[in-house]
């Protein structure tokens, strides 16, 4: 039997409340050693599931805090085991003392993600849902949380299950047909086979295509603001930040170091990096700044390429546009309050879109927000459609698609159905790995190693 574990489930620091979670067969017995109910007729040790008791945390003869104890009984708890949650006052002292008391009373300190791991091992959630728990904790924005909750509630699992049923039926037909050709197994219509394969491929490809946008919603995106000196990059950073984060002057070459700021823009969190204006220079400090600008651009998940619309277009502008080609980049034609001298048609082919704004005027914010959300594909996301939540899931879905494409090719090229069956089985394995039913111990370790203690 696994040991009873305890950890502080709330983040460190000052707060109204902190929660210590204890999970395992001895959870109630351990908690009862340090919890004294105010109503002496009630006992924590005998408490039913879904009940709350008010009382005191008493340790080494001293009353340390007022505590509410919540009782959960297996299997109706987060972990599927007996669980007690003790809510005490926040701050660093009492929660630490309470945890120490739990440990001295027989609990083991929980490792990272150990509660969620137990939920997984007890069949409460699958691996994809465990990954969603982690996403929900770190979700930014309403839409990001909606995606994580949908995943936690099994939107992805349902979609995968649908695919698996289709493929299992298909695999069954194939096996029957191959093994008992002389029996009266109805011949698998070539067209049905082709149809099922292409249908499953299309569904998986849609999930794979939505991965990037889903990841952006959950984790935000590193965004590099780049362009020539003086085009208004720092002004744009300030506009997006809502305060004077960076120095703005009419002098070209004002920004040298990379200036960082996190902002929530519509549904997405942008980690903004304002950079030094790109130009040829002999100034050693500025040159280093420019080197960092390019480095930032290479790492970015979104590039905001700023141009000064009041200037005539020059060779450097085209060069920057060419560098942006193939990246998730938005061209921003700034200074729309001034007379326009810039021929945007010359950069348009390299970008999906050119947005005209004045970075000095916050009435352009909604327009800019919309363009960024569109570019990142987050506006069209349907959380309930079931989104892939991790690189691990993406790789499994990709393996499944590849196997199905092989199956379709084998069929078209007239290979016998044996070959098709092998590929369909491979796809099914990949899908079982995605939801964790067939994940190896190493994969499970890897998933839970990213969790924090207490979750
Ligand atoms: N008229 C007008 N001026 C602007 C606008 N945006 C920025 N400016 C001005 O352009 C000048 C340069 O702005 P910055 O934001 O410092 O430009 P930058 O791209 O960060 O420049 P470097 O840091 O030198 O690369 C400043 O005088 C700003 O006030 C705008 O939309 N309209
Ligand atoms: Mg600047």
Radius of gyration: 29 Å
CATH superfamily heading of the largest domain: P-loop containing nucleotide triphosphate hydrolases
Count of DSSP H/I helices:
15
Percentage of residues assigned to helices:
40-55%
Low-confidence parts, pLDDT < 50 over ≥5 residues?
none
CATH architecture of the largest domain: 3-Layer(aba) Sandwich
Strand content: 15-25%
Q: CATH fold name of the largest domain, please?
A: Rossmann fold
CATH class type of the largest domain: Alpha Beta
Q: What letter string, H or E per element, gives the SSE order?
A: EEHEEEEHEHHHHHHEHEEHEHEEHHHH
In quaternary terms, these chains amount to single chain
Describe this structure in words.
The protein has helices at 27-34, 93-104, 114-121, 127-138, 141-152, 155-179, 190-209, 211-219, 233-241, 284-299, 315-324, 365-376, 391-412, 417-435, 441-449, and strands at 5-8, 17-23, 35-37, 51-59, 62-72, 83-89, 108-109, 221-227, 259-265, 268-274, 302-308, 329-334, 354-356. It has 455 residues and is an alpha/beta fold. It has 3 domains: 5-110, Gyrase A, domain 2 (2-Layer Sandwich); 141-210 and 386-437, Four Helix Bundle (Hemerythrin (Met), subunit A) (Up-down Bundle), CATH 1.20.120; 219-376, P-loop containing nucleotide triphosphate hydrolases (Rossmann fold, 3-Layer(aba) Sandwich), CATH 3.40.50.300. The protein has a 7-stranded mixed β-sheet, with helices on one face. A 6-stranded mixed β-sheet has the order 9-10-8-11-12-13, with helices on both faces. Helix 7 runs antiparallel to helix 13 (391-412). The model has no long low-confidence stretch (mean pLDDT 88). Magnesium ion (MG) binds next to helix 9.
